[in-house]
Amino acid sequence: MQNLDNCTLLQLRIMVLFMQRFTVALRRYSLQLLNATLVIPEIQATTRARGISSNFKSFSYLYDEEHFIAALSDDVPIVRGLPKDLREARKKIKFPTVSPKNTATSDYYTTDVLPRLVKSKVLGIIVNGGKCLQSILPASLEELQRLRCRVAFHALKFRPEIRSLGSQIVGRLRASGRPYLAYHPGLLRDTLAFHGCAELFQDIHTELIQYRRNQMIKRGTVKEQLTVDSVSIQKNGSCPLIPEEVGLLLQALGYPSTTIIYLAGSETFGGQRILIPLRAMYANLVDRTSLCSRRELSDLVGPESPLSSDLPHPPPPKSEKELIEEWKKAGPRPRPLPPPPARPFYAHEKEGWYGWIGENDTEPDPSPIEFRRQAHRLLWDALDYFVSVQADAFFPGFHNDGSGWPDYSSLIMGHRLYQTPSGITYRPDRKTVATLFENVSDHLYHPPRNWTMAARQHLNNSAGIEGIKMSAMMSKPASFLAHPLPECSCRTAKSPVVQPVKDKHGALLFGGEEDCPDWMVRTLAIVSTKNNEPQSEDYEGELPEDDPSQDTQQESDRSDTNKSSEQDEEMDPDD
């Protein structure tokens, strides 16, 4: 049961059908919101991609549609499409659409959206970045938070083909009897451009990042200058960790060179070249392409209509007779010969999606085949999401970026916290890590023992209670699903009692949860206070001080079982 709708990779267009009354409690909940019927959402990356498999509609391209409808049948009525008359009106764009901010409150929907829904009967909600409601809601809307939990972790379930192939990948990773670590680099062009990390790359990659940053400045997404000091930004922790740095941190943790590392994510900006140092340290760096056959990945995509290539074919070769005729028509040669003209670049010689930058100053519009690739990348991200949630350990290259939008790694970390809270999930503080690397910049590959111990302590702390607390402070205000505790897993002392709900196999879906530990409730209260929310009723008045005795029990040092003694000693550079 996965959640990708809250990820920046998806843009959902949701049509809401007006149903009779409009200001009543939402079924079983005392929430004065919209009494409306939800039409199955559409994923825009699939609606604009031509020729993708007709076996799946937009939503079912990623998710199990039947399960989605059944899982929410007691919460909100869902239909597969609009009635015929309303469908025709939609094609003529007769219905309004709204695009809520990622910090929209429940009042926004009742005061702004509801009147438009009443008037038009149908309203389209465009969710950019997968977030249309503030992360932390008042205590009176706690059941709305729980509804988000049910949608994210129970109703949204990848379609069977994705889950089946994901399970096969997990089985192949564990076939040797060893655990595996999932790693998401977080090296995305948009991320690097937004934070100004262009100078960490070279050549064409820097130009591509700066071009995208310039576009963001024109749209008002970025308020800063085009050229910034990337080194200072990296030291401040605003840039992703380079794969080489991640490899050195894993060595400091004691992971041996034979560790199996699964590379997650459909895009790694910089390609295979930026992964060379990490692959040199850990030869068992694998991804879906090395664990699955082309047939398996093709079956996941399904049958597709052929599209013409976005790169034209090279000019046909000329016969010897044609070349002789051209030579005869060329006339006498001047003496001396002038310098030859610049060799033209043919379109077929442009490699990949960045070939335009050699000739043009403007990036071309995406071609039909590029739109199709974008739809495919949703599948690869969904597949990697499944494998990462199941991993024995997870290491993010970039999370909690401060942009206010949810990111891929944070969603995986939140899902792991909900599903397997005892699993190893590292939450490195990139600012602290940058300071560590600055102190050992002259001998990165042969650090002294005290540096190794400092890095190990920081990372082990990030995977324990201290890391969970920091996640609640920093990640939750940006994305509720990046830290779905305590609402999704336990209850505060004065929470209303909900009858336990089980699936057909008798497994508990929700309800009947235990009381939250005090430190978790205190942390939630602190976060709510910082976001100008009313304090939890469980802690009226001043917030109590943290009890140090509750935080002293840290997880045992995980490196005891797999650490390599070579990492603790000064190594001979000539070895």
From TrEMBL:
<dbReference type="InterPro" id="IPR019378">
    <property type="entry name" value="GDP-Fuc_O-FucTrfase"/>
</dbReference>
<keyword id="KW-0472">Membrane</keyword>
<protein>
    <recommendedName>
        <fullName>O-fucosyltransferase family protein</fullName>
    </recommendedName>
</protein>
<keyword id="KW-0328">Glycosyltransferase</keyword>
<keyword id="KW-0119">Carbohydrate metabolism</keyword>
<feature type="region of interest" description="Disordered">
    <location>
        <begin position="302"/>
        <end position="323"/>
    </location>
</feature>
<comment type="similarity">
    <text>Belongs to the glycosyltransferase GT106 family.</text>
</comment>
<feature type="compositionally biased region" description="Acidic residues">
    <location>
        <begin position="535"/>
        <end position="549"/>
    </location>
</feature>
<keyword id="KW-0808">Transferase</keyword>
<dbReference type="GO" id="GO:0006004">
    <property type="term" value="P:fucose metabolic process"/>
</dbReference>
<keyword id="KW-1133">Transmembrane helix</keyword>
<keyword id="KW-0735">Signal-anchor</keyword>
<feature type="region of interest" description="Disordered">
    <location>
        <begin position="529"/>
        <end position="575"/>
    </location>
</feature>
<dbReference type="GO" id="GO:0016020">
    <property type="term" value="C:membrane"/>
</dbReference>
<dbReference type="Pfam" id="PF10250">
    <property type="entry name" value="O-FucT"/>
</dbReference>
<keyword id="KW-0812">Transmembrane</keyword>
<keyword id="KW-0325">Glycoprotein</keyword>
<comment type="pathway">
    <text>Glycan metabolism.</text>
</comment>
<keyword id="KW-0294">Fucose metabolism</keyword>
<feature type="compositionally biased region" description="Basic and acidic residues">
    <location>
        <begin position="555"/>
        <end position="566"/>
    </location>
</feature>
<dbReference type="GO" id="GO:0016757">
    <property type="term" value="F:glycosyltransferase activity"/>
</dbReference>
